[in-house]
Every structure is written in C-alpha cells, then in structure tokens.
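Audit log entry. Action: structure prediction of a protein-small molecule complex. Ligand: 2-oxo-3-(phosphonooxy)propanoic acid. The ligand was supplied as SMILES and no pocket hint was given, so placement is left entirely to the predictor. Protonation state taken as written. Sequence taken verbatim from the request; no trimming, no tag removal. Recorded inputs:
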Amino acid sequence: MAIPTYTPKPKVLIAEKVSPDGLALLKDRFDVDEKKGLSAAELKDIIHDYEALIVRSETKVTAELLEAAKKLKVVARAGVGVDNVDVKAATGLGIIVVNSPSGNINAAAEHTVALMMAVARNIGDACQSVKNGKWERSRLTGVEAKGKTLAIVGLGKVGLTVARIANGFGMRLLAYDPYANTSLAAAASVTVVSTLAELLEEADFLTLHTPLIASTKGMIGKAELATMKPTARILNVARGGMIDEEALLEALDAGTIAGAGIDVWTSEPPEADSSASRLIAHPKVVATPHLGASTKEAQENVSIDVCEQVVSILSGELPRSAVNAPIILPEEYRTLQPFVTLVEKMGSLYTQHYSSRVNAKSFRTTFDITYEGKLTGLQTTKPLFAALVKGLLTPITSTGEMNINIVNAELVAKERGILINEQRSRENVDDKPYSSFITLRARASRSTSHARSDISRSNSPSATRTLHRGGAKGEDDDQVIQGFVSGNKPFISRLDRFKGEFVPSGTLLICRNFDSVGKIGFVGSLLGKAGVNINFMNVAPLHDVESEEGVAEGDGEGNEALMILGVDGPVGEDVVKGLIGPEGVVEASVVTL
Ligand SMILES: NC(=O)C1=CN([C@@H]2O[C@H](COP(=O)(O)OP(=O)(O)OC[C@H]3O[C@@H](n4cnc5c(N)ncnc54)[C@H](O)[C@@H]3O)[C@@H](O)[C@H]2O)C=CC1
Ligand SMILES: O=C(O)C(=O)COP(=O)(O)O
C-alpha cells in the first residue's frame, strides 16, 4: 500500500491587523499565522519558517529581519508606503516586495479633507470644550475653505483625489510636483507651480502627499515655514519626517502658522516628550494616530489586493504591483513562460557542459543572448534575462544560497561579473521550422582569458564533468547554444558547432566523437556494463557554420558529431573517463537539466 506523503503548506505570517477578507483567500492554500504585536526580536526568531510576511506600517522589515528569513519569497505591505520595509535589502535577497498602490487612496484623501475641515472649524478643540461643559462660541470661530488656496505638495494619487474633493468646496488649487501629470492636473483644475517657494507663499492650507524619500525628508522646515502666511494651516497625512516637528511647534507657538492637522509622526507611537508628542498636545493641532487608511472599505481593498499577490507569488506567478520587480502583463508572461524554461535550461546546460572551462569562483564571461522571430516584439525580456542568470548560476551555487529571480537577477549578474548583452534579431526566420529561436553565445575566450589560470577540474561542481582527450578544439571559438519552443516544450537545436534537436531534461551524456563505425556500440556497451540505462540517443552532426561565422567544418580528423544520450541516474566519473580514448569519444560531459 502506498504511504501518502505529507507536503507541508507554505507558511504565511500576518504581523499586523489585516482585514479578514483577503486572509480568506490564503487560508485554504497556506498555513496562516496571525501574530500581532511581536517585538523585533520575537519576529526575527520565527521568521525563518515563513514564505510570506504581510505587514502594515508598524512592522519594521529591516535587512536583519530579511536575512534571518531563510524561506521568505514575499513581503506584502497592506497599504501604500513601503518606507518601513528595507526594499534594497529585499531586492538583494531576491524577495519580492508588493503593496496595494490604490486600495486606500480614497480613505487617505477623505481623512486629509476631514483634518482640513477640523482645523478650519476648530472641531477638536470645540469638541473637548463642549464635553468639558463649556460654551465658547466666539473663541472657536473658524474659517471657510471656499475661496481659499489649497497648496498640494505631491500631486499623485492621494494629492489628486484631495484636489478633486476640494474643488467641490470652491477652493483654488495649486500644486508643486516636479513629476506631475499636467493633463490630469488640468482636468482636476489644479495649477502646477514650478517651485515649492511659490506654493508656500500662496498657501492658505498646505497639504503634503509625497512619499518619504531623500528629497522630501524635512522639506517643510524652519525656513519654509517662515515664508508662509501667519493664517496658513498645514496638513500631513503622508509621512512623519516631511515636516520638521520642532520648527512647526515653534511656528505655532509664535503664531506664524495658524494650525495643523496631522495624522503621521516621526515616531509612531510617539515617545513621551518627543516633538511628536508635544505637537499632539498642542492646542492648535488636530491629531490622529495614523488613521488615513483606517476605513473598513480601504482595509478590505488592501487586504484582498495584497493577499491575491501573495497567492500569485507563492504559486510561481508574477504579482501585479511589485515595488521591486518590473510589472509584466499576465498575457505577456503566459507567452514568455515556455521561453523562460528554455532559457533557464540553456543557461544551466552552458554551465554544466562547459564546466571544465569555467570556474565557480571566477565565473566571468560575456554572453550575447539573441531573441528571434516573435520574441522580438516583446515589451520586456526581464523574465528571460532572470532565467538565464538563474540557469547559469544555479549549478554552481550552493542550494538555497541565493534565490535568483526577476527581482535580483541584474544585481546578482553584476556581482558575479557576468555581462549579458540582450539582442533582438530582425533576421527573417520564415525559413526556420519554428518562429522563435533563442541563441546563447558565450564570448568566453575573449573576456575570460585572465580568469583561465584559476580554472581547474577540482573546482568543477561535483554533478558535472567534462573531460577531454587532447586540447579542446578551437578554444577561442564562441560557445553557442541555440533552442526553440515547440508545443510549449523547450528544445535545444544547436550545441556549439553541432546541430541536432534534443529535449533538455533529465540526465544527459553529451559526447563529441569522430563519426566512424562502432562508436555508438562502444558507448552503449560501456554504459551497459556500468548499469546505466539509456532512454534515448540523438546524433547531432556538424552545423554548417562556414557561411555564418567563417569557421570551417571539421578539424581535419574526419567528420565530427555529438552523441546525446538520455540516461537514467548518475554516470560515474570513471565511466565518463572510460568513454574517452581512440576507440571511444573525444570529449564527454554529463549534465542534469
Ligand atoms: N496616512 C495614511 O494612512 C496614508 C498615507 N499615505 C501616504 O501618502 C503619500 C502619497 O501616496 P500616493 O498618493 O499613493 O503616492 P503617489 O506615488 O501616487 O504620489 C506621490 C507624488 O509625489 C510626487 N513627488 C515625489 N517627490 C516629490 C518631491 N520631492 N516634491 C514634490 N512632489 C514629489 C510624485 O511625483 C507623485 O506624484 C505616501 O507617502 C503614502 O505613504 C497613503 C495612504 C494612507
Ligand atoms: O498605506 C499607507 O501608506 C499608510 O500609511 C497606511 O498605513 P497603515 O496600513 O494604516 O498602517
């Protein structure tokens, strides 16, 4: 009786309050742990078990945490701002960071408007006063929004939504955003000004809606506040740190700024006696505890949005809004998928087959990868590039050391000194049997001559051996692997100077030999004696490269060919050695694809 095998489900950690609507999508497929309020140390202790981590703004996803997360594939931010996530560290580790770029935009914009009106009409103060039994009608006289200038810093999704609502109040709308979409701005009746100084001078209400980045950190400081009208009021529903809290406190005390409505703080929750806590206590400030996204609707939106992306990533698909990976249309990804497999196999075949010529530690070479036929029309070849880097490096990278993917492929290639030159060939492929060929060409000899000295057999990965009789032919020749996809299945159609179709799958014994009587029998009988079962065999004759590359066929010792044998299981090094000799073959390698 077959014993059922138990495959544990991937584990997902929910570190903050996330709406159950999205979590329901995860619970069938994954082991979902909801653990709120963990300290940084507690989180670090358990993170190694998880493949996905879902957070909001409170969890600090540091480089240290990410390094401790051995299995993590995705950090999902159930919201917009990813300033609490070390995206650079995640990228280096191949971890995808996703967010929900628009799920809480309306909530943040409405909260901004709520704060604007609360500040304009002294709602917080009035509420407190009346609850304390007072009736202070004249002290609490406010101002109207109608006819006032709303000055918006950052005319992105939230900024534009605020503008549209404020337009209904009859406000004059100005914005400063060097990267603003001017047609969207015009459609929302917003005038974009060219300097922050211009905006500040005009503002009756100033509202901030940029991300917290180097150019926006501390952008409203003492000098900027000094240029504003004393009747101006300031709103911040973006991020603490964009306004210098000490400078704002001084301006409110001095009466050079009339009031502020603030949702976000330099430290959250604010430490006692910090500038943030003094601002919260200030009578001219309406304060909220980072509530911009806290509506039922927004929380449902962001939860579903990021949980769907977690499902995609853990199922091996691409997410729709990764912060650190190129967004690629699902349709295009479907077209690319079989080619992604092909390119990865080509890279792996390259590294394994030529392993005696490359060295794990000094793996430095230059590759040209050429896409022909329908692949020339692709919007992006990023997944193919990533697949090539993965294929090239996986055979010489200890398992689990590095998860190479679309996120970090470029970085990894750069770190390993691999140069990949991607080309799209406009050449007519009508005469070829398949419409999309991919050719990988390693300019090994020209770019790695200095690295050759430290190439040694002992450094070859143990799963791979390439042995030679005599000098390798044409060391300075480019090494070429060509493949195509047919019926969604990858095929190799050329290996070096040899042309022949084979499926790059399983364990393959690749032998170069001079085509003479008895070679096939010799190899077959030796493998038979060693108990190696042969599943299939292909003979690849010389590719006619003369016209293409100016390289003559053969080397004067008769017609060469490649024998590609699909075998069961491993082939021992002694068996491979036994194949090489005057009776047998010139060169043999074993690859596992
Ligand atoms: N308080 C809360 O709960 C929430 C806060 N937010 C925050 O709101 C902010 C805006 O979010 P979105 O509108 O979704 O972002 P977005 O990316 O759509 O818009 C940001 C805008 O800022 C502009 N910008 C960038 N650097 C600038 C600079 N130096 N000067 C002027 N403009 C600059 C960009 O061109 C862009 O148009 C983010 O910081 C986000 O984290 C968003 C949702 C909820
Ligand atoms: O989405 C954002 O950027 C927010 O600031 C919302 O934060 P939160 O998810 O409410 O902790």
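Audit: result stored. The chain has four domains: 11-102+298-314, 105-287, 326-496, 501-593. Residues 234 and 260 are 5 Å apart (CA to CA).
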